[in-house]
Amino acid sequence: MTDDTRTVVEAYLGALLHGAEFERFLASDVVWTTTETGQETRGRRAVRDLIVGLHTQVFDARPELVALVCGGGTAMVEAVFDATHTGDFAGVPASGAHVRIPYAVAYDVGDGVVTALRAYVPMAALRAGLAGAGRPADAVPAS
Fold it and tell me: Which GO terms describe its biological process (predicted)?
């Protein structure tokens, strides 16, 4: 089971990081939860659009994988969100600010697809850093 989980998550991450169709690794009823807010996004298309929006519309992002840990049906990724702010984010208009924010995502995997993603992202700190007058966003402390 651990090998199956690793295979699915590595394939998903490879597709995501190389601009390929990563949504094929998502269950049709996949659920994304932003843990800081509890906000949920449901369904393959909606989760895909959320991820694509964050990586290409709100930010020009280059996520950096730090670590991947897998166990029976569960995986955890530690990463760095390295990006330039290019679109509206939580009411903050595009600023061109560069950000480097550590984050983690937990994945549930079943039947060869990702069934749930829980994103541990310091959203409030990211927003505050982008909104801060004269304060560089990459100085945002990690939560």
Answer: polyketide metabolic process
